[in-house]
Amino acid sequence: MRAFGCCVLVVWLGATVRAEVEPVATEVFVSGLNSPIEFVQHPTDTSVQFVNEKAGRIRIIRNGQLQGTPFLDFVAKIDSGFEKGMLGLAFPDHYPTDPCFYVHYSNTGGDTVLARLRHLPGAPLTADPNSEEILLTLGQPAGNHNGGRLEFGPDGMLYMSLGDGGGGSGSGQNIGNWFSTILRLDVSRGPGSGYSIPSDNPFVGRDGLDEIWVMGLRNPWKFSFDKGLGGTGAMFIGDVGSFSREEISYVPPGTGGLNFGWNCREGFSVSNPGCTPPAGLPFVDPVHDYPRNEGNCVIGGYVYRGSSMPCNRGRYFYGDLSGKVWSLALDDGVAGDIRLHFTTPYSISSFGRDAVGELYVVGFNNGTIFRIVGTGVDGDGDGDGVVNLADHEQFDSCFGGPGSVQDGTECRCFDLDGDLDIDLQDFRTMQIQFVDP
User: Fold this and answer.
1) What SS3 class is residue 413?
2) What pLDDT, on the 0 to 100 scale, is given for residue 169?
3) Which has the closest alpha carbon to 170: 179, 182, 159?
4) 151, 238 in Cβ contact below 8 A?
5) Residues 331, 318: contact at Cβ < 8 Å?
6) How far is CA 221 from CA 150, 184, 239, in A?
7) What are the CA-CA distances from residue 358 to residues 121, 375, 423 (Å)?
8) Domain extent listing, the chain
9) Helix axis angle, 424-432 relative to 389-398, nearest 10°?
10) Contact call for residues 410 and 383 (beta carbons, < 8 A)
11) pTM for the whole structure
12) How far apart are CA 229 and CA 95, in angstroms?
């Protein structure tokens, strides 16, 4: 089960002034799940999240309580062996007004399926299993490297990750198939209409399949967009390595047509000397990779945009099967400031983000969802464990109303209510923690 592992790093974007990184821990959010592999926030009900169980059920969490009746039960339709199962789930932003949702699963023949379903009339927390419309089927040569993630981007398009098919496949540089890619599809026409190709997809009108957004990926098990809550709209991809390197790749907002190099390259390393890219598709390096003595299966996560850990806002969390949890900063495309936060005793299969930007870790083998929480002191801008005059001096230099918070600057540590302003409300909260010298 190496594709469902975990270790976590964090990236801050656009850093200009070094700020302290808030220490973190985890607390149990919900337990009692069976091999969970995906955690998805309901797009319009802040109290509801969904969890994919690998065997084929999608469970509901409501007000922090796991519900007994699943949202969808596709166990009879799914092969959940090896790296297969109920892999991906995505809702459009206006669900349930738009009654459709989308799943990425492995059918009983082991092939990849993208399907659209609807909720039952008047029951947005109950899927209609008979409403399934299959949009795409991809025959898989092996039971691993299926990718699995679905997410709607800031542009309203549906993105779908696919691995290289496993079994030693050399498909990474073949733009004539869907393997080793992330696809970008327009599903806005609704039920019964399949999907269409966005006219600005990078391979429209040239060699390559029109659905492809980016390519050259070995097994992009998890990717995400930094969207909403002040996010940049960029895409981050956790691409599982082969024998030597795990990598995080970065796609700037609106930038398709990138080639991340597999199976010619693995991380920053050349894995196949003499291998060349297709014409006009030069290799793009990841923003970070790490060797197998630090981990063995990268799990992509999310940029943190919540308010409970203000010093970590704008950083990207991701993980590895080994259970390590780090953070790192990204400055002008260069990763650094890597922080090891903690190591879990369980395998991590995924991360999640709720409606207010707080982050969660999905424990695969213990069936538990954990919330990541800060353990620092509100208003402690220099990280010395207390709020004192030095912090007040920093606060004064940051005080500036709207627009005063930027990713990677020390000022973000003082936005204690998460409204992206450094204002009097933050000052009042900080005063509660003040230590008189």
Assistant:
1) helix
2) 66
3) 179
4) no
5) no
6) 10, 16, 7
7) 31, 14, 22
8) 2-374, 389-432
9) 170
10) no
11) 0.93
12) 19
Cα distance between residue 146 and residue 13, in whole Å: 29
The amino acid that residue 32 corresponds to is: G
Nearest one of 372, 343, 375 to 360, comparing CA atoms: 372
Q: Are strands 150-152 and 158-162 parallel, antiparallel or unpaired?
A: antiparallel
State the Cα–Cα distance between residues 5 and 324, nearest whole angstrom: 10
Cβ atoms within 10 Å of 403's Cβ, excluding its own: 9
Distance between CA atoms of 258 and 260, rounded to whole angstroms? Answer: 6
CB count within 10 Å of CB 393 equals: 12
Residue 25's CB: how many other CB atoms inside 10 A? 13
CA distances, 400 to each of 55, 87, 114, 241, 429 (Å): 51, 44, 47, 44, 16
Distance of CA 221 to the CA centre of its chain: 9
**Amino acid type, 2:** R
Interatomic CA distance for residues 100 and 116, integer angstroms: 6
pLDDT by position in tens, the chain (length 437):
444 433 344 443 433 333 467 889 999 999 999 999 999 999 999 999 999 999 999 999 999 999 999 999 999 999 999 999 999 999 999 999 999 999 999 999 999 999 999 999 999 999 999 999 999 999 999 999 999 999 999 999 999 999 999 976 678 999 999 999 999 999 999 899 999 999 999 999 999 999 999 999 999 999 999 999 989 899 999 999 998 999 999 999 999 999 999 999 999 999 889 899 999 999 999 999 999 999 999 999 999 999 998 988 888 999 998 898 888 777 776 777 888 888 899 999 999 999 999 999 999 999 999 999 998 888 887 778 888 888 888 888 888 755 566 666 668 888 888 887 888 888 888 888 877 65
Residue whose structure tokens are 């091999």? 35
Side chain identity at 45, as an amino acid letter?
D
Measure Cα distances from 124 to 62, 104, 260, 329 in Å. Answer: 13, 20, 39, 39
Contact between 253 and 234 under an 8 Å Cβ cutoff? The reply is: yes
Q: 403, 310 in Cβ contact below 8 A?
A: no
CATH class of 2-374: mainly beta
3-state SS class at 82? coil
**Phi, psi at residue 398, to the nearest 5°?**
-95, -20
Strands in 287-354 per DSSP E: 288-291, 298-303, 316-320, 324-331, 334-343, 348-353
**38: nearest Cα among 23, 59, 19, 69:** 59
